[in-house]
Amino acid sequence: MTDRIADPWGQITSLGSGEKWIARVDSYLDDGLAPDAVDAWVQSACVLCSNGCGLDIAVKDGRMVGVRGRGDDHVNRGRLGPKGLFGWQANASSDRLTRPLVRGADGELQETDWDTAMERLVAKSRQLLDEQGPSSHGFYNSGQLFIEDYYTLALVTKGGLGTPHTDGNTRLCTATAAQALKETFGADGQPACYEDVNHADTFFLVGHNVAENQTVLWMRIRDRLQGGGAKLVDVDPRRTVPATMADVHLAPKNGTNLALLNAILNQLIATDRVDRAFVDEHTVGFDAMAGLVADMSVERAAEICGVEANDLRRAATIIGDAEALLSTCLQGVYQSHQATASAVQVNNINLVRGMIGRPGCGVLQMNGQPTAQNTRETGVDGDMPAFRNWQNEQHMADIAGLWNVDVLQIPHATPPTHAMEIFRYAEEGAIRFLWVIATNPAVSMPELGRIRDILSQDRLFLIVQDAFLTETARLADVVLPAAIWGEKTGTFTNADRTVHLSERAIDPPGDARPDMQIFLDYARRMGFTDRDGAPLVKWSTPEEAFEAWKACSKGRPCDYSGMSYDLLRSRSGLRWPYPEGADHEVDDLYADLAFHTGSEDCEDYGHDLLTGASLEEKEFRAIGAVGRAILKGAEYTPAPEAPDDSFPYLFTTGRTRYQFHTRTKTGRARQLQDAAPDIWVELAPEDARREGIEEGDLVEVTSAQGSMQGHARITGSRPSVVFAPFHYGYWDVGRGAGPDGHEPRAANELTVTRWDPVSKQPIFKLAAVKVVKVGAGDGTPSPAPTTTASAPVVDLTSGTTTGGDAAEVVETVEAGT
Amino acid sequence: MSAHLAAAIGGARDAESELLHELRKVGDRHVADQDVAGMCATLADRTQRRIDALDAQLERYGSAAATSGWEGWDHLVAGARRTASKVTGRTPAAGSLLVDDLRSLYLVSQEVFLDWSLLKQGAMAVRDAELLEVVKKQLPETERISAWAKSRCKLAAPQVLAG
After folding, report:
1. What is the ipTM of this complex?
2. Three-class SS of residue A294?
3. Which class in CATH covers the domain with range A1-173+368-540+808-817?
4. Which pLDDT value is given to residue A681?
5. Fold of the A649-785 domain
6. Tell me, what DSSP letter sits at residue B137?
7. A229-234 average pLDDT score
């Protein structure tokens, strides 16, 4: 038994180069329940990060009682992280939403039945369609639903209503990953897969605290490092676990990623570590890209980034000498300044080294959420279904044909509206009907004061569909109770293209309904029809929806047409593309080095990486990629959020291992909540000294946008960087949608309304702030975990993160190995 | 050195001055559209760099760097514009104001692009390698401003036109 709060990764199972990862099955059951006392083990996968680890849900007497990893699943080989082991307990929370709510004449939300709630929102929807048309409607969904939910939503909003305003909270976590892949390879789709870790000899992690955010992927990388012969270069301003194990750790100033990456690329070129034959045969744009980075010497970058020039040289040497390079990015890139240009530069580094499409070589542009990949695929996140190109008339005609609607019904005068613009349209009164599904913008969006103002407007009709009464739901006109993971059947795809079937294990509480059923009900009541007058949506079960999605994906890069529910049941995890007639998985997407850069095939014509101006077809054709990867770049420009005398520090937000998002689930799982119970603020030792702050003191952090308070943790992050986790809002401290006149504690009170010009992903890693001590601590350390990047620089006498008996997990290592 | 070419450089500089004014104006009028305000500021900085490059060439050609009337007073009204745009930015009129402003910004940027294109020809015609080098570096920059203004204008237009 292992306390998997104190030891989040469990036993090491050393992984030598090219070996198969030994299975280690992790299981956790309620109250010492014996495995043979379980009534049923129901096939599923974890939905508490983008890793999507295969697991079975234990069911007894109609309720969930535990989970067990699936040893045959290639994603996790049986392992589970702390969130997967303990997060399922949230399903049984006593404060689940069980009945619809509508705002009454007295201004309060009151319980009602489905008919009343749906008729109220349908009446409003019809009224606004008459007054203004579909552009009055916006939909802001999630990275937590299933393919079946998303694809139904795509059809209802694009084919039924015809509004261009549908996006997901995936805009906050994964938009840059998708965009960087489109810019370089012509279409979304993860080039590498997790088995590449087994074969890689060099890992290049950029802004990706994998040990915290994808614990099971880190187990694999850690085991590979243990197995010997592999090197690690880590870029992170915080002293993360990977940073402490890295051969070179670069801790750049927030907002300078592009200078650092341009310098590494420049150094690779200058030291002749370029695979010229590969570049000539499989890429376009090398000379222009080389010209862009030519003036970024390691010395210049060292000064901009605040790192040692020699460390940059060492990093470039390790990357340049790699024989199997696996590079990854996450929010440190995606939520920072020049996000897309930086993520693309990581693609470029692998391409100029010729390291893509074979075992151990590739790029993992990571996702944040478990089903983020599917919002991208189904087209409810600012894309078109199955990676179709909004500027390609044939692609639009194909969708219209699939749905049997007129092509003009499908909104494609512009790219689908991104989330930041949806909120902007709501702010100016152009969107008056906003339906928020399985996400909590009142805590997760930047500049919360502004977001609360927008969501509270009388002229905005707000619908919130969720499992809990979130901060956002408290502002709604109608609240719809949703069934969640384990209570409905569906499929979803992780960050390495692995598709899992997740079966319904238990009944939803009360009157809660699966999201897909709610969308179907809306479509039925609105009377949406196809071109022949038949109902627009032809399906009523998840399996039928999956079959429809297969037809939509057929022939596209994310081809699911060879899959079926039966096939997904017969095994554990299956990667796309899996076209009709397929008999094996595609592990490395570009093993054939045939990229999706033909103008008829590509998902996007790309953008100017500096301004975000979108290219048109003839400009894209002029690049002449036709199947080759596109090397492009941008010059580094300083971020506008620079520290000054009033706001001398740079603020950054992030996750902590034990919580997810706004804690709607993890905050209701006691082991996870106890491990990270409340907000904290991290400071480097010299900054703390300067401000007279000690461990545990109450501090206030203020930016031009707002302020928040938390207890100080003195950590090893680079000087002048202040960190706070973004998970903590107001639902569990007795407040409403916001601080309600008390001390604010949400990190996003401070963040700025600014986004990357290309991917439109908001920038959470950069706000100029000041830090003031507002109260002395009583000697108690801050509530920050000690087992993460939040580890204190000095040993604390108390407050060490442990889970005790309640967190004991059985780990069974595969026999005979 | 050709007086005609010197005049063309001066003409390009005048057009750039007007563009700089437009960028500042549009940025200040749309602070609620953060991406527009932010990109206008970025592009204004780069426009100032091109103006400096043209001034250096004008000096080579013996012409005084002209100061057009635009540059002097933008900062005087910036505060008022920003304050006003915080209010108008929260009204349904915001969209059409944005489309109008981006449309005129695009047209001004087109003049700048054309002027630099002509300078390129002039530099080739008089075999001025130094000027040609400057133009080769800056011409794509002017095209980039047009591309952004058009792209952003097209993003905003359908919501306004359908409303």
Report:
1. 0.94
2. coil
3. alpha beta
4. 98
5. Barwin-like endoglucanases (2.40.40)
6. H
7. 97
